Amino acid sequence: MARLGAPIRAPVQVLYAEPKRPLAEALLAELAVQRVQAELILLSDAPDTDTSSPTGAPAVRSAAACGSLVILAEPPQAPWLFETVGRPDRGLQVALDHLYCDWLLPYDSLIRTLSVDYACVHAWRERLLDLLQGTSQLCIQTGPNAELTLVPRAWIAEDGEICAAPNKESIHGTLVVDGAVYDRLPWPPIELHLVAGRVVDPDALKRDDACLRMLYTDLTRDENAAQMAEFGLGINPGACPRAHVMETEMAPGTCYVGFGHNLAYGGSSASMVHTDPGMLRPTSMVDGRMICHRGRYLL
Q: What tens digit of pLDDT does each residue of 121-151 get?
């Protein structure tokens, strides 16, 4: 509800997948209490993209422009979702002002991340943004001998995180990835070495592990796939740090790095892919000042 603004702009259209029906119906009931006109639309596994359909791109984009739009989708609807409203890492086709999209987050993750005081989350986000604005250098320690330095571009505020596209020439060092890689935590953790922002040893990921093989494939898909494209910090206290990557990157005290495409974040790398491995308990230094020690903020 906090994402849709206050007061909520009517009418509200809620497009939902069947597994997320309870959440959609709860939202409808709350909107009714607030006397806000709303409509539920069930999404099939392959939603109709015909222009006359309520799930066609013109109708969905019109709903976002004229009222408010909520999308609660599941993985089978991913092609429709990305074609209709776009992707955060590649650019959106609709304005964010009156949109809430779960970006295929699992149902249990949604409940955890939405059951927080968003006013407090936003207040913490603004405090952290104030500290980070104008940052000359970030230093991230993810292990005893693992330190990465970078210079961020402009910071971007999201619902559960803040992120920035770094200056790629400024990125040097080593990362120990112990947070989510896709849908699991790697064991043992992955060590990545970067020079001028690029992973220099992706072949080290050629192990007998399907998740790591997928990461290797993504990092070698094209010439910019192994280029560090984004750095982010989680800010949602309801997010579990040991879950699906879309949830773990929102957990406070964690951080993540994106590789590949970053034009939508103000960067200069175009790629077919964007992937976000995470770190669970980093120590973060901002222009020499420690703001987070082993996953605990010192602010």
A: 999 999 999 999 888 899 999 999 999 999 9
pLDDT given at position 116 = 93
Q: Residues 4, 63: contact at Cβ < 8 Å?
A: no
* Distant-in-sequence contacts of 90-96, Cβ < 8 A, 24+ apart: 90/261, 90/263, 90/264, 90/274, 91/263, 91/264, 92/264, 93/57, 93/61, 94/60, 94/61, 94/64, 94/65, 94/69, 95/64, 95/65
CATH for the 2-104 domain, from 2.30.30, 3.10.20, 1.10.3470, 3.40.50: 3.40.50
**202-212 confidence digits (pLDDT tens):** 888 887 888 88
- Token pair 């074609």: residue: 83
Domain limits of the chain? 2-104, 119-297
